[in-house]
Write a structure and sequence with these properties.
The chain is 39% helix and 11% strand. With 465 residues, it is of the alpha+beta class.
Length: 465
């Protein structure tokens, strides 16, 4: 089997009497985990690879899945949660309490938002409304949280995903009833463009996205008469926000015209375009790296130690997709270049794309999520898991200029979007222990290993057949 990209599907699980029965051993070195995330970097000496960070809460987070509690509902929400039971169950797994903050922007929040959009869209078939009023929105969002939490999801999803009751209303969009909507937009054209979205091409060709924008703009113009007397700058700003609000109305209408599974595929596909456009990591002060890696780089060891220490802090933030990792590497590289570091310190210090994501285990290293939409999985034996490109040893790309250029539609960047393991190793489990000082339980991670090959050609990432 040729070396390269190992595609790994990993499933995390906790057992009730885990500490007595699991053959995995604890990580003895807690020093790294005990250090504060916001500590001053020069005080941290990276003596090796950072300890893996995969926080867990006690007791066993699988309990909600194996013993689902009864949610306390308001009885005032008109959304048909029962009709979307499979959808809400999937959302609960995608937003599993322990992992939710670390897969929020890639898996949990896109799924949560899609679920709400579909529920409102489907309800419009009987209400003729593509939005909830303020009071109803508050009750429905609360009920939704209760349902998800009762199945093991985090109880703070609204905070993690920044979702408020107002997000379930029409907000500033002047159109919310189906009749007015369909008499304002070219509904057949919209449905034709978005009924079947090519998940690979849509982000760059934007066939469905352009149709949605056109429809949102048309219904937003319904309020144009009210804006004529306002300052022109205010009109532009207000109109832009109104189009965003109307876009939600368009998505709900689409969700009402598609079956639940197809609607989810379309909505998640569109959200992945947005997700992969930016690096979600926050880059703290780089002065220590700049000082150690000045252009002369008289001390390569000091420079790489500073880089490893800095990157180890980035690894505590969240999982990122393979395309996001490219953007993160480019973004950090641009910042370093602007601090007069022109030499490729990624190559010098062997920094790879997987170094920009959460580390799963020392001997396996970083986990890059697929750029195409994916869900977590759950079964009573293995627990919760998700697809992960673990041994993706692609060198982090170093920018050639001081200007950042997005890689999403860069045709020279070709990273496998959705991993598919080969069969020869697909059934072989490998176990790795994880622990942190903040979350007492120790867990084992099971990996089902497959392999694809990826090559580096002229500093560009190209998939090797």
């Amino acid at each position: 089997m040729s070396p390269g990209l190992k595609i790994v599907f990993f499933e995390a699980f906790l057992l009730f009497h885990f500490l007595h029965k699991c053959s995995c051993s604890k990580l003895n070195d807690r020093t790294f985990a005990d250090k504060r995330v916001d500590a001053i970097f020069p005080e941290i000496s990276p003596t090796g690879s950072p300890q893996p960070l995969l926080p867990l809460l006690a007791p066993s987070p699988l309990a909600p899945f194996t013993n689902i509690t009864v949610p306390k509902l308001s009885g005032l929400c008109t959304l048909n949660f029962s009709a979307a039971e499979n959808l809400t169950s999937m959302t609960a797994i995608d937003c599993w309490a322990v992992f939710a903050p670390y897969v929020a922007h890639v898996i949990c929040c896109p799924q949560y938002e899609a679920t709400l959009t579909i529920l409102i869209g489907q309800s419009s078939k009987t209400t003729n409304l593509l939005a909830l009023n303020g009071s109803l929105a508050k009750h429905c969002l609360s009920d939704m949280d209760q349902i998800l939490a009762s199945q093991g999801a985090g109880n703070n999803l609204n905070q993690i995903c920044t979702i408020r009751p107002s997000n379930l209303t029409e907000a500033s969009c002047p159109v919310k009833d189906v009749f007015t909507f369909e008499n304002t937009v070219e509904s057949s054209k919209l449905l034709a463009a978005c009924k079947k979205v090519d998940l690979v091409k849509e982000c760059c060709e934007q066939v469905c996205q352009n149709a949605i924008l056109e429809a949102a703009t048309k219904i937003a113009l319904k309020a144009s008469d009210d804006l004529l007397s306002l300052n022109e700058q205010h009109i532009v700003m207000d109109h832009s926000a109104r189009i965003d609000d109307c876009r939600n109305i368009v998505l709900r209408w689409l969700a009402s015209k598609l079956d639940t599974s197809q609607a989810k595929k379309v909505l998640r596909g569109l959200s992945s375009c947005k997700v992969n456009q930016f690096c979600p990591l926050v880059f703290p002060n780089m002065k220590h790296v700049a000082k150690s890696c000045a252009n002369s780089i008289s001390n390569q060891t000091a420079c790489c130690s500073a880089m490893e220490s800095y990157v180890s802090h980035l690894q505590k933030q969240s999982f990122v997709t393979n395309l996001q990792a490219v953007d993160c590497a480019m973004s950090m590289g641009v910042k370093l270049r602007r601090m007069n570091i022109s030499r490729n310190v990624y190559s010098l210090c062997h920094i790879t794309l997987k170094d920009f994501s959460v580390q799963v285990a020392n001997i396996v290293s970083g986990c890059l999520l697929p750029s195409l939409p994916s869900d977590a999985t759950f079964d009573n034996f293995s627990g919760v898991g998700f697809l992960c490109d673990l041994n993706d040893n692609i060198p982090a790309p170093w920018p050639l200029t001081n200007q950042f250029q997005t890689s999403l539609c860069n045709k020279t960047v070709k990273i496998p979007a959705l991993p598919a393991a080969t069969s020869d190793q697909s059934g072989k489990p490998i176990f790795f222990p994880l622990t942190t000082s903040h979350f007492p339980p120790v867990i084992c991670i099971r990996f089902l290993v497959g392999q694809l090959s990826i090559g580096i050609v002229d500093d560009d990432l190209k998939l090797v057949s």
